[in-house]
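Running this now, will post back.
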Amino acid sequence: MIIASLMYLTVSIVLAVIGVFTENYGMFIGLMFLYMAWHSYKGISGWVSHASSLTFSVEDDKLVFSGSAFENKVSLSSIKKMVVQTKKGEALSVLLFPDSGGLEKLEGIDGVKDFADEIESIIGADKVKYARFFHR
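Update: finished.
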């Protein structure tokens, strides 16, 4: 996302300069891209400031994600498949596929292997797949 912010900022500056010299509407489009860069930056800074307050826990057959402003619960009995994405033998992320559809992707967790093992012990090894090809 930080790359997107920098790209928006660069495009906004280029369009604003072109708009000033050619006396057309490029300046206004450049201002729009400047707004998009600012909005993207604020989103990143919001995630960074709340990252320390994110917690994951297992309570009464439910996986609970909670932060400073939200709480999301996923029933572990409703998970039809779990994919642990690995790279060079190290677990990097966990994908949870509930029966209701959708996807919960968990990455950047400290001790993701232990986290995956705990969920695997609850839902069963037959619902777990280890993917060696890591998708972004």
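The chain has three helices and seven strands. More later if anyone needs it.
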